[in-house]
Specification:
Strand content: under 5%
Number of helices: 6
Shape: rod-shaped
Low-confidence stretches: 605-620, 637-651
Mean pLDDT: 69
Helix content: over 70%
Strand order of the largest sheet: 1-2
Order of helices and strands: HHHHHEHE
Number of strands: 2
Length: about 650
């Protein structure tokens, strides 16, 4: 029984070690699965980053192209707006309209291509997401397949183990029942034998047969020892049976859990099948879309190449036009500079002539002023002299008339002297009033003449000033117009030079951008190649790890099969041992029955019994040695076989 217990404990330890190894293998598989998932995620993130960079570069390039086209368009509009000649204006307006239409058409085409590229990029993103999901679902599907097969194999193993344990349990229960029956029979036989032996002892005491008593006592002691051994064996079997029942309960729980897990895995497996079918359909659609997208992308690449060629041709034509315009503008500038020099010389001559005319006009004005003043003084003196003469003549006439009147009529004058004096006074007063009025009129006429002369002088001066100012303003206006024209031509030349420099810079920038683009594409390709090499390396490592795992699993399955074979062989040997034990018990019973009969015969014949020897299970140690040899084989050690035979002597 101790050997069976040790054997059972050793088998349990071996099973525990195998279970721990299986758990460690599962943990390693989970780690490798997580590592593969992390690698896939890193790959997807790198692809997303590269795709985002590519999209961003495409958008930047398209934006740069749009800006360059808009800048060229605005520059052309500004350039053509500054043209003064009508013929060139009409020609340039026509060219501008054509170019505007072409630019609008190109802009619309670019916007369409940008929208198509954005749509294609969105489709590519969706397709990449679907592809990643499909790959992830495929991996999960394969992992679930593997887990399902492992669980199915484990379920079969557990079912087989449970069946074996149930069979062992039933066999042990049968053996325990048999042992109980044997115990009862032994007790009954022991009681009977005890009664018989007591009777025999009494008889022997009566007959004083001491040797027979000693033999009987030794036999009783041997029977008691056998009964105690059978009791211990029964207790050990009961404890083993309890342990086996506990193990059976745990195995049943494990079976229930595995059945539930298998049901869940089957549901997940069915769902994954459905999802796998859907993803296969999506993948088929994705492949069709990829084919369409490849054709569209090739067309777009061809269009982009055509656009680049057109842009280069336009740049070359623009550079030629700008060079021609630069030469024309230089010729115009030279002609304008010569015209400017001529106009400056004319202006200087005109300024000199104006200064001379101004001096002559001033001299003429002074002369006219002096002559007018002299004439006015002469007229005034002449008028004054005439007036004085007239006054003198009147006075003489009056004095003459008065003297005549005095001489003719002295008496009448004496009589009428007072009246005449009064009349003369009145006449003088009237004459003085008339002369006063005439003087006032003369003064008024003189003032009018002076005012009219001053007005004429002011009008003449104003006319001279207006003519002088008009000539000066005309010359100044012409000078300002020529200066503005010169500045405009200079500005046009500067604009043309700036446009030429900008075109050179843009050409250089385009060249640098193209170089940067090629360098970026080369770096991108190198990065992709490095990433692809890294991924290939990781895939190789994963394949190697999968191969090693497969090898370890194969070894593990081989070890499990060998272990199952050893367990089955041990179970067979245990069954054989139980059979041999039953046979030995039957032989013991038979021998006891024979002894009982022989004792009865001896009691009748009073013959002293001879001690007997009973041989126990001789193959038990052989089985133990075989079991230890298989265990050492499993451990990798060289087995050491020992054959021993056990004989129990009954005295």
């Amino acid at each position: 029984m101790q050997i069976l217990k040790k054997k059972y404990e050793y088998e349990r330890q071996e099973l525990q070690t195998i279970i721990e190894q299986l758990r460690e293998d599962i943990v390693d598989l989970d780690k490798t699965k997580q590592l593969y998932i992390d690698v896939c995620q890193e790959k997807n993130s790198i692809e997303d980053n590269l795709r985002a960079k590519f999209e961003y570069e495409i958008k930047l390039k398209l934006e740069d192209l749009r800006r360059t086209f808009e800048r060229d368009y605005s520059d052309k509009i500004a350039q053509f707006k500054t043209q003064d000649q009508q013929a060139l204006k009409v020609k340039y307006d026509q060219d501008l309209e054509q170019q505007a239409k072409e630019m609008e058409r190109v802009k619309i085409n670019h916007e369409k291509t940008i929208n198509e590229l954005n749509i294609e990029l969105d489709r590519l993103r969706a397709n990449d997401d679907a592809k990643s999901r499909l790959s992830y679902v495929e991996k999960e599907f394969e992992q679930l397949k593997h887990d399902y097969s492992d669980l199915h194999s484990k379920q079969k193993e557990l079912l087989n183990n449970c069946k074996g344990l149930e069979d062992e349990n039933q066999n042990l229960l049968q053996t325990i029942e048999q042992l109980d029956q044997e115990k009862l029979q032994l007790k009954e036989s022991y009681d009977k034998m005890e009664t018989k032996l007591t009777n025999e002892l009494r008889e022997l005491q009566q007959t004083d047969q001491k040797p027979n008593l000693d033999d009987l006592q030794t036999r009783i002691r041997n029977y008691e020892n056998a009964v105690s051994q059978y009791e211990e064996y029964r207790l050990k079997l009961e404890t083993n049976l309890q342990k086996i029942t506990q193990q059976r309960d745990t195995n049943k729980m494990d079976l229930r859990l595995t059945k539930e897990m298998l049901a869940n895995k089957e549901n997940e497996f069915n769902q994954l099948k459905i999802r796998f079918d859907e993803t296969e359909q999506a993948l088929h659609r994705y492949k069709e879309r990829l084919a369409n997208n490849d054709t569209i992308s090739n067309d777009l690449k061809k269009q982009m190449e055509q656009y680049e060629q057109q842009i280069l041709e336009l740049n070359q034509a623009r550079i030629k036009d700008l060079k021609d315009k630069e030469a024309e503008y230089r010729e115009k500038l030279l002609s304008i500079q010569t015209e400017k020099n001529q106009f400056e010389q004319r202006l200087q001559e005109a300024n000199r002539a104006l200064s001379l005319a101004d001096s002559h006009l001033k001299q003429e004005i002074v002369k006219i002023k002096n002559s007018l003043e002299q004439e006015y003084n002469r007229r005034y003196e002449r008028d004054q002299k005439q007036h004085q003469q007239e006054l003198n003549q009147l006075q003489q006439q009056l004095t003459n008339e008065h003297e005549k009147h005095k001489m003719i009529t002295p008496v009448m004058q004496a009589n009428t002297s007072a009246q005449d004096i009064e009349e003369v006074k009145k006449m003088y007063r009237t004459e003085i009033d008339r002369l006063y009025r005439e003087n006032i009129e003369l003064n008024q006429n003189q003032a009018k003449l002076i005012d009219s002369h001053q007005k004429q002088m002011q009008i003449m001066k104003k006319d001279l000033d207006d003519g002088y100012n008009n000539v000066i303003s005309e010359f100044q206006h012409e000078q300002t117009r020529l200066q503005t024209r010169c500045e405009q031509l200079k500005q046009q030349l500067q604009d043309a030079e700036e446009i030429n420099e900008q075109l050179k810079k843009t050409h250089l920038d385009d060249m640098t951008k193209m170089k940067e683009k090629y360098t970026v594409e080369r770096d991108h390709k190198n990065r992709q190649e490095n990433l692809q090499n890294r991924l290939d390396h990781l895939v190789k490592l994963l394949e190697q790890s999968n191969e090693t795992l497969a090898q370890e699993r194969a070894l593990h399955t081989k070890q499990e099969n060998e272990y199952q074979e050893t367990i089955s062989s041990l179970q067979k040997k245990i069954a054989d041992m139980i059979k041999q034990h039953t046979k030995a018990m039957d032989e013991i019973k038979r021998e006891l029955h024979q002894e009982r009969l022989s004792t009865q015969e001896r009691l009748t014949t009073r013959v002293i019994s001879v001690p007997e020897y009973v041989q126990t299970d001789l193959s038990f140690n052989d089985i133990k040695s075989d079991y230890m040899a298989t265990v050492e084989k499993l451990r990798g050690n060289n087995p050491i076989l020992k054959k021993n035979s056990a004989i129990v002597q009954w005295e």
